[in-house]
Amino acid sequence: MIKVHAVMCTYNGAKTLRRALDSLLNIEIPKGMEMKIYLEDDGSTDDTVGIYKEYAEKDKRMELILHKENHRVAKKALPIFETIGEIVKKSGEEDFLFILDADDEYKPEFLIKMIQFMERYQLDMAACGSDFIYHDTNQEVGKRLFPLKILVEGEDFSKYFSQYHQFMRTVWAKLYRTSTLRNCDFTEAGKHFYGFDTMFAIEVYDQLKNFGILDESLHKYYIFQESTSYIWTDKRAQSDVVLHKRYLQFLENHNAVTEENINYLFKVYGGALVETTRMLVNAQLDEKSKLEVIIDIFSHEYTKELLKGPIARGEAFQKSINQLKDWILTIESKGREIDQKKVEALQALRCELNYVLYGLSSELLLKFPQTTMQVMKDAKQALPVFYEESEKVDFPEELLEEYLFLGQRLAAAKEDNDTYIYFSKLLIEYWIANNKKEMAKKAADEFLQILPDDSDFISVKQRCASC
């Protein structure tokens, strides 16, 4: 007899578990088939296991798979993928498999409609739509639903990528043939706390000869603010990069690397970064750690490529960048190290620098992080900060010219004429000492038009003329 294998894995899901289990028991089974239910617990500390046992005692189709320790505590891969691997090995050629989160539901007609769809078109996998519901209010706030049935095969993997991509991001709301899953390697997916479901889905899609998307919503997804999707983890930013790389690999595997598809992927990546950085700023992390994450994110080759294109100039992305910039500027000075991190973060963000800082090297700005921060806030007030930092900073001879330029510009921003002239004279002397006499003479001539009796500028002109 053909079996349908239902798999659930949860950790501390007792609050919603009964609803999910009831939905499994209410699913209508097609004639000539039977359903086997695998209930896996990932080391829960609430009443999850008790609820599992209560249901399993009443329904012999349920098999319990219990782990004493959570996989993160045990430093192991997410256990559901090993479970699925074992199920697939033992399954029949005509068997099916689906996955349900412990806080979601399937509608009773899910199996009948999905199997009819798959059998009619001989599909390796089928996806359906989902209702999105706020858990707290039980209010439906949207749907993920395709307006028409879609069948994908061969060149369609490339042609319709931007349309079916949204269905590649999750493991639920899908029905798989177990014969297709036998070719999958879920090792990489099991390593990721955030994004594991997308890694699983991409691996499956990579093995498909064809698939379809049914134009009906047969699944309910409940939105929880405490879900891992909305909570910062130290692997969140890394997952964005890993998933982008895996998507690129998927396109290569299906001869789908087109300008349109690459641009679409960068749009997805940009959207992920907006969400990731929003969560980062609100996370319970020290400021230094947050700055280091920002530097890592925006120094990555994928992000640098993104910043070159039109997506980075979009309203949503620019808003996110400006919010990050504003947050960085509000961080109080807590020592030189964090000040330097602030400068590095601003540079990584490619923020539009104040005119005072244009053309100055990263090396100099990192030597004067407090000055740089003050310039970004209010350049008119930066000169005293510059003086204070200058007393503490040692910098190589090759940065002296930039240093003098910075002093000159800060004086101009403050409209301090005497200080501006002071730094200009030092800069001219530097040029003379470094065989840049034409630059020195030109600058002296310009100042003599304003200050014809200034002895220092007269001396510079005479020295340059005698050379």
UniProtKB/TrEMBL annotation:
This protein's UniProt keywords: Glycosyltransferase, Transferase
Superkingdom of origin: Bacteria
NADP found in the keyword field: no
Stored InterPro entries: Glyco_trans_2-like, Nucleotide-diphossugar_trans
TM region(s), chain numbering: none
Domain Glycosyltransferase 2-like residue range list: 7-154
Protein name, entry field: Glycosyltransferase
Organism in which the protein naturally occurs: Aequitasia blattaphilus
